[in-house]
Amino acid sequence: MEPTTSATRVLDNYIGGAWGPAQAGERLPVVNPADGSILAEVPLSDARELDRAVDAARAALPEWRAVSVIERARRLFDLRNGLDARREELARSVTAEMGKTIGDARAEVARMIEMVEAACAIPTTMQGRIAEDVSRNVDCETVRQPVGVCAAIAPFNFPAMVPFWFLPFAIGCGNAFVLKPSEQVPMTQQIAFEVLAGLELPPGVVNLVNGGREVVEGILEHPGIDAVSFVGSAPVARIVYERAAATGKRVQALGGAKNHMVAMPDAVVARAVEGIIGSAFGAAGQRCMAGSVLVTVGEASERLLPALVERTRELSVGAGLDEAVDVGPVISAAACERIIGAVSRGVEAGAELLVDGRDPGANGAGDLAAGGSYVGPTIVAGVTPDSELVREEIFGPVLTVIEVATLEEAIATVNASRFGNGVSIFTESGAAVRRFRHDVQAGMVGVNIGVAAPVAFFPFSGWKDSFRGDLHAHGPDAVEFFTRKKTVTSRWFGDGEGSGAYFVER
Ligand code: NAD
User: Fold this and answer.
1) How many angstroms separate the CA atoms of 265 and 260, rounded?
2) Is 140 noted as a catalytic residue in this protein?
3) What does the pLDDT read at residue 376?
4) Does ligand 1 lie within 6 Å of residue 37's CB atom?
5) Distance (Å) from CA 91 to ligand 1 centroid
6) Is the pTM of this model over 0.85?
7) Inter-CA distances, 299 with 312, 387, 406, 423, Å
8) Nearest Cα residue to 8 out of 26, 25, 30
9) Is a pLDDT exceeding 80 seen at residue 506?
10) Quick one: pLDDT at residue 4?
């Protein structure tokens, strides 16, 4: 890693409508995983910074709530256009700080913008409901009101998109918002907040507090925060869920994953191989929807594996900004070591390496920068169900293959995982699909699709250890999460002073 110089940019927080340095002294370098260079320094804000942000957010609530829902939607249109105007800059920032290929980063930014587009429907989606005559002359109606101050805590793997699973829906519903991005990838949200700063929202409607664990713990305890959205690893999701609930907050906590892909013998080989490779090795396997276990049923293994291995060996590894590269670096040197360690332990325990990516430079992948964190695509077979490579989230470009005889066994293998985020099946059989989608214990199912991440208009719904809470991210769930329902039961007599003369009571 290069040393920090006095010219290194220090990132600011955005609190109460103004950019400014964090009061706390500690900072972390933001490292480009492609070459180890230092892109900036991020402050590790302390609890006082969070207090300032929450105070600003609470102060903004009355004014923001008084802005009509149509006007709030117009601000979201402006946000959408502002992000669209800077989409290439956002994508390049994602690649620089996170490592994924520029093509992947562009797709992420497109999904980020799609979130804002979905939130623009808020004048419709936030509507309540009414029933007349629930009793004689009595009506009952439910309206939706903002929850208050909502905070979000984001992971490193989607620096642009994941914060926007929450932000546009939260502010569209009339809430104020505090974001803590991942301290590993804080730069892309600086651009997003520059766009937000240009919208002339009341000061404090959106706030950006950079930091790590101290800010997270502050959010969980803070009496001024009403709702918490978390995305990250399963152990932290559990902590966030339990502690935020203990202080009476509304909470949704999206955790880690171990996604399975099931290949049936009748899968269309070329398409299935393409889908499996995109899922396992896209973003260097660092997606919560990455397929990391391939379950082949019957003859599927002999039909698919040769082509899968051959295509995987052809993938190029390198810096994500190079348009020709297929697999970028993983997030850090520590991640690199962890992933290679997991593969090596599997091999020591008897796993067979069909493709070994532990030393991608040696595989002739070209010029890999010495300071970069590279692991090449890796395929492992011959493991037992209790292997770490089957049970644990590796979060790198590693695919483990399991062979079974029947669809029932494949479904049992999927359901044995403690995670339940995404799952895919590759087949041309409608009956197999019907059985699979009915019986698998996972929130998101792909049919002949390797990464079945729902579009913004549908909820992102993990199960089991992949999710804690009840309302999921984006789609209709977002409006449920970011509003409180109020139900009014009313009757009118019509014989009050002055009005009774005009109509007769029934
Ligand atoms: P992480 O859990 O290490 O960090 C997530 C956030 O929590 C960061 O903002 C970090 O500052 C904070 N944090 C980390 N450790 C903490 C602690 N001990 N106490 C309080 N706060 C803490 O996750 P990550 O490595 O940034 O992201 C990768 C993980 O996120 C993977 O497990 C991946 O599957 C998961 N993920 C899940 C989804 C989903 O939708 N389910 C989406 C994206 C990523």
Assistant:
1) 16
2) no
3) 97
4) no
5) 21
6) yes
7) 20, 23, 10, 20
8) 30
9) no
10) 57
Could you tell me the distance, in angstroms and rounded to a whole number, from the CA of residue 371 to the centre of ligand 1? Answer: 24
Q: Is the CB of 183 under 6 A from ligand 1?
A: yes
The neighbour count for residue 362, using CB atoms within 10 Å, is 11
- Which residue among 120, 173, 288, 336 is the active-site one? 288
Per-residue pLDDT tens over the stretch 93-109: 999 999 999 999 999 99
Return the closest-CA partner of residue 406 out of 380, 439, 375, 382: 439
**Beta strands 250-254 and 129-135, pairing class:** unpaired
| Owner of token pair 């019986």 | 439
Kindly state if the Cβ of 395 falls inside 6 Å of ligand 1. yes
* Residue 256 CB partners (closer than 8 Å, separation 6+): 232, 233, 234, 237, 288, 393, 395, 419, 421, 465, 466
DSSP 434-461: HHHHHH---SEEEES-S--PPPTTS-B-
Name the nearest CA neighbour of 283 among 332, 336, 321, 330.
330
Q: How far is CA 422 from the centre of its chain?
A: 13
* Ramachandran region, residue 180 (left: φ > 0; alpha: ψ -120 to 50; beta: rest): beta
Task: State how far the Cα of 212 lies from the Cα of 234, in Å rounded to an integer.
Answer: 17
Q: Is residue 499 scored above 80 in pLDDT?
A: no
The answer, yes or no, to whether residue 331 has pLDDT greater than 90, is: yes
Q: CB neighbours of 182 closer than 8 A, spacing ≥ 6?
A: 154, 155, 156, 159, 232
**pLDDT tens readout for residues 53-84:** 999 999 999 999 999 999 999 999 999 999 99
Q: What mean pLDDT comes out for the span 429-437?
A: 98
